[in-house]
Write a structure and sequence with these properties.
Structural class: mainly alpha
Radius of gyration: 25 Å
Strand order of the largest sheet: 1-2
Order of helices and strands: HHHHHHEEHHHHHHHHHHH
Distance between the termini: 66 Å
Helix content: over 70%
Number of strands: 2
Largest sheet: 2 strands, antiparallel
Mean pLDDT: 85
Length: 467
């Protein structure tokens, strides 16, 4: 297999990892409550525990798996381990022995979520700054694609009615069995077709160089990176402080938290508000989520295109401004909408959702990309693990906040707008510090060209008129 083919296959497998994560969320979430209610007669609070369990374990485990990738430099083996946790967690979900077993299943599956951070860390290590934003945009859009097509799979999974040993496969347990099979397939792809990215990018592709020689150079680079990692300082509080307690890093972490907090809170409130103010049921909500997902995928592709023309910090500023406008609009619409005017309400809600979905890809992709460019390559695994932990915190807090304030829209949106306004202010103040090395080089080049032009004009002015 040629080097180019190996790269494509590896990136496809990385994309499938993100796609599986989106599908898993989309097929399990719609039936989770009825599964627990019908089989175990749980109280509503237990749904919140199960939903938060995945993010909680991801929060704890992502920095650990990320640090392991920095130290041992075996991303393929670590990705296989993450996939194994996903297989185990979904198998437990399918078995459904008790409500606590279900809770444990989501905790175990959450251990596999660190794989996404691991892939992003490897991309941050090996790709150029010019290409990185576009690559990240494509991968993250795969997760969104999973969220779009996932609900459609439930139309087929709900027809299941058979046994595997003593365990029944029905419309509630089928999502777990299905995802266990899909993650097993992903594990097979990883074992036989995945090549570590640092090996593929080990040397520049040359027309006279064979694939074997290129791979060998990549392996040599792998050992060099490993030795450099061993020689680097041990992980201490001072090192963590110096690397991450920096103005530009704190700004990006705050933007990441606010982006996911806003998105998950909106997803939490969307269904009850649509039922109350639009008289929508399951079908209408599914169509809404599908259309929103299609918009997001299109915007992800737009971000990929614009990444060649605009700096990450510019797109971040645009996304944050649009998201703030969307929340201001919804903070006005929701309190002034009544169940008696559903047709009028639909138009107003559509504007808010369209603006929100427009802003999300810019914020998600550009924060990940810029964060990877401003942190060290040697500790990309830890950096992406920490970032994933922040996302986990926001995904835990957001449903609790939205659920408890859904009857107080001014309070609910007021806090979200306050967080976004603070992030927008931080982004504006720290805008100059959010320059990457490439941006600085281009800026220096422009300054040199401008200086040369000015000097040439001065020399021309000094020349006599008659020469």
């Amino acid at each position: 297999m040629s080097l180019k083919c190996k790269k494509r296959v590896t990136y496809v497998i990385c994309g499938l990892f993100f796609l599986m994560g989106g599908i898993e969320y989309a097929v399990i979430l719609p039936t989770l409550w009825l599964y627990m209610k019908n089989k175990f007669d749980v109280h509503p609070y237990f749904l919140g525990l199960v939903l938060s369990a995945y993010s909680f374990s991801a929060l704890l485990f992502s920095p650990v798996i990320g640090r392991c990738s920095d130290v041992f430099r075996r991303p393929k083996l670590l990705l296989i381990l993450c996939t194994f946790w996903e297989v185990a967690g979904n198998t437990m979900y399918f078995m459904g022995i008790s409500k606590w077993f279900l809770l444990g299943s989501r905790l175990v599956s959450g251990l596999g979520a660190g794989g996404e951070a691991l892939i992003l860390a490897e991309i941050g290590r090996v790709t150029s700054e010019e290409d990185r934003t576009g690559i990240i945009s494509s991968l993250v859009s795969m997760r969104q694609l999973g969220l779009v097509f996932g609900p459609g799979l439930n139309f087929f999974l709900r027809l299941s009615n058979f046994y595997i040993g003593p365990f029944i496969v029905n419309k509630f347990t089928a999502p777990g069995a299905f995802m266990a099979c899909m993650w097993t397939l992903q594990c097979i792809f990883l074992i036989f077709f995945f090549t570590d990215l640092h090996i593929l990018y080990g040397s520049k592709e040359k027309s006279f160089q064979t694939t074997e020689e290129t791979i060998k150079e990549g392996e040599n680079l792998h050992y060099k990176i490993t030795e450099n990692t061993k020689e680097s300082p041990k992980l201490t509080l001072k090192l963590l402080y110096d690397d991450y307690i920096r103005e530009e890093i704190i700004v990006l972490i705050a933007l990441q938290f606010n982006s996911f907090f806003n998105q998950v809170a909106l997803e939490t409130m969307a269904t009850p508000l649509s039922q109350k103010l639009l008289n929508w049921g399951e079908i209408e909500n599914s169509i809404m989520y599908c259309l929103a997902g299609v918009e997001v995928v299109i915007v992800f592709m737009l971000v990929r295109f614009l990444s060649k023309k605009l700096q990450d910090r510019v797109m971040l500023l645009f996304g944050c401004a649009i998201l703030t406008i969307a929340n201001c609009w919804l903070s006005y619409v929701v309190p002034h909408s009544t169940p008696e005017t559903p047709q009028r309400n639909i138009a107003f809600f559509a504007i808010g959702i369209i603006l929100d979905m427009l802003a999300l890809p810019f914020l998600v992709v550009c924060t990940i990309s810029l964060y990877s460019k401003l942190t060290k390559k040697e500790t990309q695994g830890l950096s992406q693990g920490i970032r994933r932990s922040v996302v986990g915190i926001s995904c835990i807090i957001a449903p609790l906040w939205a659920g408890s304030t859904i009857d107080k829209p001014y309070l609910m949106f007021g806090v979200m707008i306050g967080l976004l306004a603070m992030a927008l202010l931080m982004l504006s103040i720290s805008f100059r510090k959010l320059k990457t090395k490439t941006d600085r080089k281009l800026n220096d080049l422009d300054n040199r060209e401008q200086s040369c032009t000015i000097q040439a004009e001065k020399d021309e002015e000094r020349q006599p008129l008659l020469s």
